[in-house]
Amino acid sequence: MDHSELTRLAATPPFYAPQGQEESIFEHAHAQSLPVLIKGPTGCGKTRFVEHMAARLGRPLITISCHDDLSAADLVGRHLLGTQGTVWVDGPLTRAVRQGAICYLDEVVEARKDTTVVLHPLADDRRVLPIERTGEQVAAAPGFMLVVSYNPGYQNLLKSLKPSTRQRFVAMTFSYPEAAVEQRIVEQEAGVDFQVAAQLVQLAVALRRLTDHDLEETASTRLLVMAGRLHRSGLPLLQACQAAIVDALTDDGDTAEALGEVVRAVIGITA
Ligand code: ADP
After folding, report:
1. Is the CB of 52 under 6 A from ligand 1?
2. Would you identify the CATH topology of the domain 5-173?
3. How far is residue 222's CA from residue 45's CA, in Å, rounded to a whole number?
4. Which residue of 59, 107, 141, 227 shows the fewest CB atoms closer than 10 Å?
5. What atom in ligand 1 is closest to the CA of residue 14?
6. Nearest protein Cα to ligand 1, atom 1
7. How far is the CA of 125 from the centre of ligand 1 (A)?
8. Is 222 near ligand 1, meaning CB less than 6 Å away?
């Protein structure tokens, strides 16, 4: 177990404002050794939720950000050449399986297809990790839990979860929190007062209604927190929103202009 995992184990749960019944669903899934799939847009609280639940359940958390080069060997481990010859080095998934940690695979649909071969036997009743290279079958230690997330907004036909994979998981759908909850999150996370938080949430609601622009993503809770933090640090709110929200969302001049108009309408000259 490395130092960062130990630190996480000892930490008190980070602040998390629930959207619904997700905490109790997760607790029951953990008690039943069932894997969990979290769907939702970027920056809506998926990672924070998993961090919060791992601390609450007293389990170490190993997070893996998936990308299109991530292979089964990156998860499971590989032989490395050392001074004593070749040695087997466990990958992060194997460490989680041996330790009984919660293993969180963020944006799992990005990973290479060969990863499903190692995830499937872990995600069903077998709860075993086959290590092809060494012939070992590692049984998951008590407390081990597989959690994966993905953003259905990015989904295309090539990059969606196969039914045979998704049916192994208890699924939860996240979206941006309702206004009162999001306001509390922005107040807490950015350290701004409730009026500023309310304006930022009002802005997010207006921006999320814009559908006639070619935006891949819309204003997330994360972006609101960033704008709030810039403002708390002394930047006028209008500028903070321009930098942390508008320019973060688009590279296109016309779209930026349209989003900027919404910002000026909502934040106005009070900023
Ligand atoms: P995701 O994993 O969905 O991309 P994160 O969990 O990283 O999003 O959330 C981004 C940021 O937004 C967090 O660091 C936190 O500041 C804030 N946040 C979003 N939702 C919540 C929530 N429900 N409770 C507390 N903070 C939240």
Report:
1. no
2. Rossmann fold (3.40.50)
3. 8
4. 141
5. 25
6. 43
7. 31
8. yes
Pocket flag, ligand 1, residue 41 (CB < 6 Å): no
The pLDDT tens digits for 85-133 are 999 999 999 999 999 999 999 988 888 888 998 999 999 999 999 999 9
Burial zone of 33 (CB within 10 Å; 0-12 exposed, 13-18 middle, 19+ buried): middle
Instruction: Tell me which residue of 138, 145, 100, 141 sits closest to 118, measured CA to CA.
Output: 138
0.70 exceeded by the pTM? yes
Pick from 16, 28, 39, 49: which is nearest to 171 by CA? 39
User: Domain limits of the chain?
Assistant: 5-173, 179-267
Instruction: Assign 6 a pLDDT band (cuts: 50, 70, 90).
Output: very low
Q: Give residue 7's pLDDT band: very low, low, confident or very high (50, 70, 90).
A: very low
Tell me if residue 178 falls in helix, strand or coil.
coil
131-165 pLDDT, tens per residue? 999 999 999 999 999 999 998 876 555 567 888 88
User: Is residue 63 in contact with ligand 1, taking CB distance under 6 Å?
Assistant: no
